[in-house]
Amino acid sequence: MSNDSTKFTRLPESDADREASERATREEVLDFWDERFGVPPETFDDYTFWERGKGKLWIYRGEPPSPVDVEALGMTFLRTRQEHWKPTLEAVQRFGEHASECVIHLSEGEAEAFVAGYDQELDWDGDWGYLVVTHDLAGRQEPVGVGLYVYGELRSQVPKGRRRELGE
């Protein structure tokens, strides 16, 4: 099955159901979130996963009406056709509260720099790679985005159009 950038295709449940070797499966997506971030697979029980094009995954709560001709379905969730899978900002903001692994908590000043798009030298004793970045908001630890931690530096992955200067 070839990828069509104009159509959403539901992810196969497992490797046994996969027609294209490069296409992710639901099982692999659940394993990724569980193994990398400690998000339990049952967190996604009410959701379906869809691919549009090559490796751009979307998550949708429930079952869409079929047939349906749409430009978007749910929200973008994960990029899979690259060396390291990358969760989207939206996915981390929505599901990052369930993460127990690869979570870095930032102070107010660090969080302000992060959402403004600045890279920062920070100490982190966990795995390198993509992290759920959190900060205290309204008395709770809340996910604010995706960071890439390499070589002692947290690199902001906040898209340019979503960056904000919050300081004075």
TrEMBL record:
It holds the Pfam family DUF7122. Residues 1-24 are annotated as: Disordered. Residues 10-24 have a biased composition (Basic and acidic residues). InterPro entries: DUF7122 (IPR055546), Nol1_Nop2_Fmu_2 (IPR027391). Residues 2-74 form the DUF7122 domain. It comes from the Archaea. Residues 111-164 form the rRNA small subunit methyltransferase F RNA-binding PUA-like domain. This is rRNA small subunit methyltransferase F RNA-binding PUA-like domain-containing protein. It comes from Haloarcula salinisoli.
